[in-house]
Design a protein that fits this description.
Helices cover about 35% and strands about 35% of the residues. The protein is built from 14 helices and 27 strands. The strands form six sheets. Strands 12, 13, 14, 17, 19, 20, 21, 24, 25 and 26 form a ten-stranded mixed β-sheet that branches. It has a six-stranded antiparallel β-sheet with strand order 11-10-9-8-7-18. The protein has a four-stranded antiparallel β-sheet with strand order 1-2-3-4. It is flat. The protein starts with 8 loop residues before the first helix and ends with a helix. The structure holds zinc ion (2 copies). One zinc ion binds near residues 53, 71, 73, 74 and 80.
Length: about 500
């Protein structure tokens, strides 16, 4: 049986304007109120509107002591529709207090143990050692894990800006599977505490924002399950176990300096190291991959790492058997241009990352460049310049089929096949002309347009571009079709 507020229930409604009350009721009825929970006279819930707002209401003796909401309207000191919506939800969950009191009687345990004897850079015991949950919550969370309902998609290391400066954080993207649908979960934590946990499981939408000095970690059962998974992950991989970011950079520079010195002092004859580009074409998406080696050339699986290793003069593994000590090799003359091109792009990406880190609160060390580098805009223009007049190996993918081929990079004049017909009606009255036809599908660089023929990758020269520009502007996806009316002709 639901226990409802009696006459008293009118009291809280008086605080609200009628329209606000109506909106609140609408929100409640349409299930905008999510994750209602209760502890020590305080109710918390999320209200999902155009944004997700956090509402907190303290009720004693059936009378609201205070109401808080994170929406702008409430920030100005008003009673808002989100509060009203939550009040309706509290009314309907009249039994909740009782139920929660029972829950509170249930024995609580700490699922994660603080341990000082094991060193781990990130440690769930350290960040959630104070967390207390009921034994049944643990059981439920473990069951979710056993049923493969909870998992981790990705763990990224990044930096979070606080008033104390930049601190290293781990960002975990997790999921929960509910009725075959995936719901996202996020957990961000630094070495000492959980910064943020979000759960988008329907009906839960639990948000937790950690604040310094708060030992009251408030999480849902899905997040508890995710924390168990994170604990396992950290124990297995111990990520982030480096001194710190700045020290990393110094260490890297130091090693690179040492090795370069070695390279210059090496007396033994060194083999030249070759790097060759492969032009990757998938529809109109262009990219570049690399092959490298001394005699046999291998596909470079991680271009960014390759450049870092070469700069540092360290060894690189190709496949499972070949190990090349890059300190002993110099890049061959003909490979220098492609190496410099790639190195420049990697530097660009790094400075973009640095910029992102400085401008955003959360910055993720992006996975960055791996096996392919996208070619677009200015990059495409520069790449063409490097290989103009040369034939470049290519992997071409179209309509799902891949093929190996080569393209000659050259300047070209695109072919237009235009058909011009007179628009004449039955009485032989001339109404105008109709033009239709095809133009090549152009790919845009920053400065130039490009197109493919059977065996060439062609750049449209500036003179040609000027001439064909009006036509190209009429073309839509390679097709031209327009009519010039009689009036226009005269
Ligand atoms: Zn509000
Ligand atoms: Zn949840």
């Amino acid at each position: 049986m639901k226990k409802r507020y009696t006459e008293k229930s009118m009291d809280w409604k008086r605080k609200f304007a009628r329209t606000i009350l109506e909106r609140g009721k609408y929100y409640y009825v349409h299930k905008y109120v999510q994750g209602l929970r209760y502890k020590d006279y305080i109710y918390k819930a999320q209200v999902i509107g155009s944004y997700i707002y956090q509402v907190e209401i303290k009720i004693r003796n059936q009378e609201p002591e205070y109401m808080m909401c994170s929406c702008p309207h409430a920030q100005k000191g008003n009673y808002c529709k989100h509060m009203a919506a939550v009040m309706y939800a509290i009314e309907d969950a009249g039994g909740m207090e009782q139920q929660m009191k029972l829950n509170m009687l249930e024995k609580k345990v700490k699922p994660f143990e603080k341990r000082d004897d094991v060193y781990r850079y990130f440690d769930v015991g350290r960040i959630a050692g104070d967390l207390e949950v009921t034994e049944s919550a643990i059981e439920e969370a473990k069951k979710m894990i056993d049923n493969l309902q909870v998992g981790i998609d990705e763990v990224k290391m990044g930096y979070s800006r606080t008033y104390q400066g930049s601190i290293k954080v781990a960002v975990v993207q997790g999921y929960f599977i509910e009725n075959k649908a995936r719901r996202n979960m996020t957990c961000v934590f630094d070495r000492n505490s959980i910064n943020r946990m979000e759960c988008s499981v329907l009906g839960c939408y639990h948000y937790y924002y950690g604040s310094y000095g708060s030992d009251n970690i408030d999480i849902c059962k899905h997040q508890l399950a995710l924390l168990f998974m994170i604990d396992e992950y950290l124990k297995k991989y111990n990520p982030g176990d480096t001194t710190d970011h700045v020290a990393d950079v110094f260490l890297h520079r130091f090693r690179s300096h040492q090795n370069r010195k070695n390279r210059e002092n090496t007396i033994e004859t060194v083999n030249d190291f070759h790097i060759e580009p492969t032009f990757e074409k998938a529809g109109n998406e262009l990219a570049l991959s690399l092959k490298a080696g001394t005699e046999k050339l291998y596909v470079v699986k991680n271009i960014k790492e390759f450049v870092q290793l070469y700069e540092a003069g360290e060894s690189i593994a190709f496949g499972s058997k070949t190990q090349v000590n890059l300190a002993k090799h110099r890049i061959s003359c003909e490979s220098e241009k492609i190496y410099d091109f790639v190195k420049k792009i990697i530097k660009e990406e790094e400075s973009r990352e640095r910029h992102a880190r400085e401008s955003y609160r959360y910055y993720y060390e992006s996975e960055g460049i791996k096996q392919k580098i996208s070619l677009y805009g200015k990059r495409l223009d520069v790449f063409f310049d490097l290989y103009e007049g040369c034939t470049v190996a290519a992997n071409s993918k179209s309509r799902g089929k891949s093929s190996k081929t080569t393209y000659l990079f050259k300047e070209g004049k695109p072919n237009f096949s235009l058909k011009i017909t007179k628009d004449v009606d039955e009485e032989q009255i001339f109404h105008g002309i109709h033009v239709s036809g095809k133009v090549p599908d152009f790919i845009l660089g920053e400065q130039y347009r490009y197109y493919f023929t059977q065996d060439a990758f062609c750049r449209v020269g500036e003179e040609t571009a000027k001439k064909i520009l009006p036509l190209m502007e009429l073309a839509e996806y390679g097709d031209i079709s327009f009519t010039v009316g009689r009036k226009n002709c005269m």
